[in-house]
């Protein structure tokens, strides 16, 4: 293990990223067998997790340098699973999403990094401002290329939310007349925007979305406003004869729904539906990818869901009931990734 880490680090410093990745991959395999020191009997679980996260982080950078952001993203998720409280892990994840042009998800990763940095009492205002600028740039990039929906953020204090939502919907229609086929304001959570420390760091917002396509808008609203997130098109179990229908749904509708849902997540750190809501959305996404026979994409989304779940306790207080759900979903994700079958909490949620 020590030799692999030493050789990998040397290759990394020499910018021979292919060779470095090979050495770090070897080190990761040894680490997965329980090695964090030369004597596995002296390796604590925390030691192993920290070392594994560090190795994964190096692999992220290697694969980004090698122009393989998809592989880098996989390792960024795994790095977060091993060490979810480290803000830099989330920034690396953001960089991977950015390279893949998945700007809403990059924005969310940057937002999480910012929150973790502040919660860890990060003293550097310059660092905080830089993270927020990155977060802001990613949200702007996400919207700049979006043609199916537009958004409006409305400052929100402690007013009556129902009245404020009506006001926000009306204002949206006036400002964005091309996106009024369906308009709704997210009722489940207060949104944050990247704002510099000397500005309004605690300002909260309501998010209103408007769509060109009425059915897409209705579908997104249904997906994000139910207590348990649902993903349209999956109310019945898919059979092989429905694969073509699933592909058509994904190409014509699913991608646009996911784009809107991803953007909603880019400024919402806490979801009133529950701390696992975002991960449940990703479970739905992975399930659809499974029906489409896209195994690699499904595995990547499931790993992303695990990273999301691992981070939750570091962002908010989790009730005993939610903690039980969180651990059950984490176990379900591991079962799905390993190909194990059986009754799961996730399958029960799907039937709701």
Walk me through what this model shows.
- The protein is mainly α.
- It has one domain.
- The chain is 64% helix and 6% strand.
- It is built from 14 helices and 3 strands.
- A 3-stranded antiparallel beta sheet has the order 1-3-2, sandwiched between helices.
- The longest helix has 23 residues.
- About 2% of the residues have low confidence.
Q: Layout of helices and strands, plus pairs?
A:
Elements: H1 2-13, H2 17-32, H3 45-65, H4 69-82, H5 87-99, H6 103-119, H7 125-144, E1 149-156, H8 161-175, E2 182-185, E3 204-211, H9 214-225, H10 243-265, H11 277-291, H12 295-315, H13 320-338, H14 345-350
Antiparallel strand pairs: 1-3, 2-3
Helix pairs in contact: 1-2, 2-3, 3-4, 3-5, 4-5, 4-12, 5-6, 6-7, 6-10, 9-10, 10-11, 11-12, 12-13
